[in-house]
Known about the structure:
- The chain has one domain (2-147): SPOUT methyltransferase, trefoil knot domain (Alpha/beta knot, 3-Layer(aba) Sandwich), CATH 3.40.1280.
- The protein is an alpha/beta fold and 154 residues long.
- Helices cover 42% and strands 21% of the residues.
- The chain has a five-stranded parallel beta sheet with strand order 2-1-4-3-5.
- The model has no long low-confidence stretch (mean pLDDT 94).
- It has helices spanning 15-31, 51-59, 79-91, 109-114, 128-147, and strands at residues 2-8, 39-44, 66-75, 96-101, 117-119.
Amino acid sequence: xxxxxxxxxxxxxxxxxxxxxxxxxxxxxxxxxxxxxxxxxxxxxxxxxxxxxxxxxxxxxxxxxxxxxxxxxxxxxxxxxxxxxxxxxxxxxxxxxxxxxxxxxxxxxxxxxxxxxxxxxxxxxxxxxxxxxxxxxxxxxxxxxxxxxxxxxx
Length: 154
């Protein structure tokens, strides 16, 4: 199953950008034997401001995908439950899983309604660059949990 993180905006060169690259590379390498990957990040630019224009730009990257929207009103999951969900989707035959990260004002209500599920990182507000890094790390952590690696400790 291919896994993508599709986000509004481009990250400048930063420590967070390097973390995203590192965790996506690790997840891709560790996930091959598990039928997971590649794990990729796609940065989307909207030509116009606002949630509706961002939703239109994001929509082009969702064809045929199971979509999990990152949203403050979503469900926070422990890492093992997150890993189990990814494994269940893979085992159910989902070929492509996409995580969406919206712009500064969040995701358009229509796009949230189209999502198969919503994921929250807790009640705090996080900068977009850090949210991408945290999501990339959690995907890597899920892959290591599913592979039986000692990376995750309960």
